[in-house]
Amino acid sequence: MITVAGSCAAVLLLASCADEPADLPYGTVQQMMANEVQPTADIYWGAVGSSSELIDGKPVNRDWQPETDAEWQAVAASAVKLRELANTLGSPAYAEVRAEGWTDFTEGLAQAATRAEEAAKSKNPDAVFEAGGTLYSVCSACHQAFPPEAPAAGAEPVDMTPNR
Ligand code: HEC
């Protein structure tokens, strides 16, 4: 697996990557969110869903959910990975520099991820949908409590709408 820390080490050789402590396994929180947390959550959120679109003026509804054991396992694995990421976010390297309350949210994410894993193991699409909603509310709650410190000038707002 290529970790952000690994690529940071590579960048260090070029003498940039300046103010990033080396003991952050996934780089800054911003990098970890963009490179690990969001893509992993997207796997979970994308697993079960429904859509409706007009084709030749007629509504066409589509539902999807994992079909094979391997597909269900991949969904459960994404929840396990989210829990690991949550625990890393709650570790001293990431938590120490944050205000009080940070670990409440990382623990909340770990718990939501555990419920999400159980839902995937039960192979119940409704439970996965529900657990995905709970996950999303934990993401949002932390983002409200800990907004980005200094948004880059002209940065696009980040779209974290669940992919369903
Ligand atoms: C413990 C708090 C916390 C939790 C829980 C959390 N985030 Fe974040 N997230 C942050 C912080 C802090 C930032 C802002 C980082 C910065 O820009 O300095 C952020 C930023 C982001 C970004 C923007 C990254 C960028 O490119 O600027 C995305 C996307 C994101 N989070 C996704 C998620 C998702 C998806 C979840 C839930 C599965 C989640 N986050 C849960 C704290 C959290």
Automatic annotation (TrEMBL):
InterPro entries in UniProt: Cyt_c/b562 (IPR010980)
GO aspect biological process, one term: electron transport chain
GO molecular-function term, one example from the UniProt record: iron ion binding
Highest taxon of source: Bacteria
Protein's UniProt name: Cytochrome c
Species whose genome carries this gene: Alteraurantiacibacter buctensis
